[in-house]
């Protein structure tokens, strides 16, 4: 049919293609990792070979003191938290003892840590809630943990991973940076990175992945300037921030040694 000059042609209908949501989180689209499954596997083989039993750096004596230490560690260093909790945990290593100690005394003990007033209040409130709702014990499920004052998803993930041995990934500043910098689990939010990490990390490494990545981010792939010359995954890294080979003639000495010794396999 001919179209007259005054008649506008019918608009072509365009249907926007939507990316498929992830299986883990319907509705949320995860960015793709820069690495194949085999490469991701090799990355974690290296971390494992370098440090087979990675440990967190917060001091604690039981599930309760771990929970308190993690709550106190928000925007504070582990070293600073350990210094502050040394005496505190000797006096109060249970919710009941912490309540008896009182908010003022807790505030005194942790005053060297940032946000100490809010944190002291939360420590008392969460202790009261543990006594009231959980008979003074720390629950081993995320939902219950996240209901405690001062406890968010990250804190819950740390406790579930370190104390209860669950393969959770707590995305702190280091994991968030690493996920995006090296592109192993890119994401705009910590939750995006967490879900992308869960998807990318081979199951056999998921229990320790959180620690390996924190330690790697804290001591090697640092925020300001990554120490690529000491990096065990230098040859695998696809970060645009990776130092060029020429700049680091002694590059990956450790990597080269590990590869030469055949220690990059779990059974190696
Ligand atoms: S090579 Fe450099 S940028 Fe890549 S992971 Fe290692 S330290 Fe980070």
Provide a descriptive summary of the structure in words.
Helix 5 packs across helix 6 (about 115-135) and helix 9 (about 175-180) packs across helix 10. The chain is elongated. It has helices at about 35-50, 65-70, 80-90, 95-100, 105-110, 115-135, 140-145, 155-160, 175-180, 190-200, 205-220, 255-260. It folds into two domains: about 35-55 and about 170-260, Orthogonal Bundle (Endonuclease Iii, domain 2); about 65-160, Endonuclease III, domain 1. It has about 270 residues and is an all-alpha fold. The chain has twelve helices and no strands. The model is unreliable at about 1-5 and about 15-25 (pLDDT under 50). The structure holds iron/sulfur cluster. Iron/sulfur cluster (SF4) binds near residues 220, 221 and 231.
- Major sheet: none
How helical, in percent, are the residues? 40-55%
Whole-number count of domains = 2
What is the correct CATH architecture of the largest domain? Orthogonal Bundle
- How many DSSP E strands? 0
Report, as a whole number of angstroms, the end-to-end distance.
75 Å
**Rg, nearest Å:** 24 Å
How many separate helices?
A: 12
Shape: elongated
**SSE order:** HHHHHHHHHHHH
- Spans of at least 5 consecutive residues whose pLDDT stays below 50 are 1-6, 13-24
Structural class: mainly alpha
* Mean pLDDT over the residues: 86
Strand content: under 5%
Q: What is the CATH C-level name of the largest domain?
A: Mainly Alpha
How do the helices and strands line up, and which of them pair or pack?
Elements: H1 37-50, H2 63-72, H3 78-91, H4 95-101, H5 103-109, H6 116-134, H7 142-146, H8 153-162, H9 173-181, H10 190-200, H11 206-219, H12 253-260
Helix pairs in contact: 2-8, 4-6, 5-6, 9-10, 9-11
This protein binds iron/sulfur cluster.
Iron/sulfur cluster binds next to loops.
């Amino acid at each position: 049919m001919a179209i007259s000059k005054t008649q506008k042609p019918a608009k072509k209908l365009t249907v926007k293609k939507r990316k498929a949501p992830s299986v883990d989180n319907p509705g949320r689209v995860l960015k793709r990792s820069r690495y194949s499954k085999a490469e991701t596997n090799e990355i974690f083989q290296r971390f494992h070979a370098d440090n087979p039993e990675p440990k967190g750096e917060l001091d604690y004596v039981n599930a309760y003191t771990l929970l308190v230490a993690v709550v106190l560690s928000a925007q504070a260093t582990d070293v600073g938290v350990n210094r502050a909790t040394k005496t505190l945990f000797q006096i109060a290593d249970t919710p009941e003892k912490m309540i008896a100690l009182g908010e003022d005394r807790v505030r005194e003990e942790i005053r060297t840590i940032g946000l100490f007033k809010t944190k002291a209040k939360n420590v008392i409130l969460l202790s009261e809630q543990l006594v009231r709702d959980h008979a003074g014990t720390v629950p081993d499920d995320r939902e219950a943990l996240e209901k405690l004052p001062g406890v968010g998803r990250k804190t819950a993930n740390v406790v579930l991973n370190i104390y209860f041995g669950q393969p959770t990934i707590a995305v702190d500043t280091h994991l968030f940076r690493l996920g995006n910098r090296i592109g192993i689990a890119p994401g705009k939010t910590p939750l995006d990175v967490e879900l992308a990490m869960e998807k990318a990390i081979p199951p056999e490494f998921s229990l320790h992945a959180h620690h390996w990545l924190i330690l790697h981010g804290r001591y090697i792939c640092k925020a300001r300037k990554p120490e690529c010359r000491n990096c065990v995954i230098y040859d695998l890294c696809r970060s645009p921030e990776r130092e060029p080979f020429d700049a680091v003639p002694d590059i990956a000495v450790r990597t080269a040694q590990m590869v030469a010794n055949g220690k990059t396999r779990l059974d190696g």
